[in-house]
User: Which sequence fits this backbone?
């Protein structure tokens, strides 16, 4: 069978063998309800708390500040709704380049009477902290700015923005779904009160995530019911997924140096080789960026057509976020950076993980060169 190459790790990652191994006993041996008092329950509680410590270590938090959710989307929803319902006002400041988990939720909170200011970015893909400062009002209850963008990998000036929020006594949330496990993430250094992360972006299972809640932050619960997660998030704990996330967090911590070196080199290799072999290539987004994402535009290329053609050749890449692909709407992230619509439509995202090799990248580059050449020739014939 032809080798299949996966370079869409920002959409999701393969569950690591060590993660799966850690999860398996939770289905049939340690299957208890972590809230039960008997031994089955105690065994489940032990592994849940072990996982909580591993996640806390990865982000420099106290384990009591780590609350398990059903994923990054729920954590983002909780941050917004929790502050609208339990905070000091009804105005949220966010950015134009957030994931739909934030942007679509903002539309819903607006429809319920809240106010939202969306701050844009410059052509490098970065938010200006000054623009955030200027958007603050008396009734601002939350500032939510993502740590690193899922389409371009551009890292936002979180420390500066959190400093502004702190000065004004406003709760600060960051969606760190893409940055955790790719670069060092420390909640104290970043100065955040709330932080979202997700298991399946770091070789853990899908359907598990965390909302980090700094001690003392007043936020209303999002899921109500039983008194799970110290009365903060109701619902029987998903023990296998939590254990998987714990194992993934340990692995991510060990592999951080490799991300910063080998994977960053692989990303540079993609950019350099693509630019050498194909004309009309531009890199979207400037440093600082995550080591594992590159977003490239190719003159006179239809991005969606290229994704399909590459897939037929066994190579998985994407045009942007998996949550908006298929919508044929141009990327809101690249549009916010001021790119022309035809440049936006010609962009591809390549996202790496520590399983990827230089052989895979070289093979992808060959396919890319072939596909771009073929599609450009076709487009010329159609337009001519
Ligand atoms: N936030 C960002 C930046 C993401 O990239 C994603 C997933 O693509 C999410 C939130 C949603 O996370 P989940 O898939 O765990 O719901």
Assistant:
């Amino acid at each position: 069978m032809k080798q299949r190459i996966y370079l869409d790790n920002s959409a999701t990652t393969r569950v690591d063998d060590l993660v799966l191994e850690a999860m398996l006993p939770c289905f049939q041996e340690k299957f208890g309800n972590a809230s039960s008092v008997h031994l089955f329950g105690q065994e489940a509680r032990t592994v849940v708390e072990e996982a909580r410590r591993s996640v806390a270590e990865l982000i420099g938090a106290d384990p009591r500040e780590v609350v398990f959710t059903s994923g990054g989307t729920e954590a983002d929803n909780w941050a917004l709704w929790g502050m609208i319902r339990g905070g000091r006002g009804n105005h949220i400041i966010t950015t134009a380049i957030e994931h739909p988990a934030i942007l679509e939720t903002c539309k819903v909170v607006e429809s319920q009477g809240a106010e939202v200011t969306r701050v844009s970015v410059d052509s490098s893909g970065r938010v200006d902290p000054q623009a955030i400062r200027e958007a603050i009002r008396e009734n601002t209850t939350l500032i939510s700015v993502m740590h690193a963008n899922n389409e371009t990998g551009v890292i936002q000036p979180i420390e500066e923005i959190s400093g502004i929020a702190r000065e004004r006594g406003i709760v600060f949330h960051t969606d760190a779904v893409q940055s955790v496990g790719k670069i060092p993430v420390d909640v104290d250094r970043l100065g955040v009160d709330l932080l979202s992360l997700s298991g399946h972006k770091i070789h853990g299972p899908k359907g598990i995530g965390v909302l980090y809640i700094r001690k003392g932050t007043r936020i209303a619960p999002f899921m109500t019911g039983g008194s799970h997660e110290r009365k903060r998030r109701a619902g029987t704990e998903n023990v296998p997924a939590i254990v998987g996330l714990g194992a993934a967090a340990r692995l991510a911590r060990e592999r951080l140096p490799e991300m910063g070196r080998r994977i960053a080199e692989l990303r540079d290799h993609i950019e350099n080789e693509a630019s050498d072999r194909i004309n009309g290539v531009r890199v979207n987004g400037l440093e600082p960026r995550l080591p594992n994402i590159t977003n490239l535009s190719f003159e006179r290329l239809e991005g969606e057509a290229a994704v399909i053609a590459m897939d037929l050749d066994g190579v998985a890449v994407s045009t942007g976020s998996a949550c908006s692909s298929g919508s044929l709407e141009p990327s809101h992230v690249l549009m916010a950076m001021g790119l022309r619509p035809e440049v936006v439509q010609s962009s591809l995202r390549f996202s790496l993980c520590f399983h990827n090799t230089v052989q895979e990248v070289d093979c992808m580059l060959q396919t890319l060169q072939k596909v771009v050449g073929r599609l450009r020739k076709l487009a010329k014939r159609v337009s001519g």
About this structure: The chain has a mean pLDDT of 96. Residues 5-12+255-383 form a domain with the Aspartate Aminotransferase, domain 1 fold (CATH 3.90.1150.10). The chain has two domains: 5-12+255-383, 17-251.
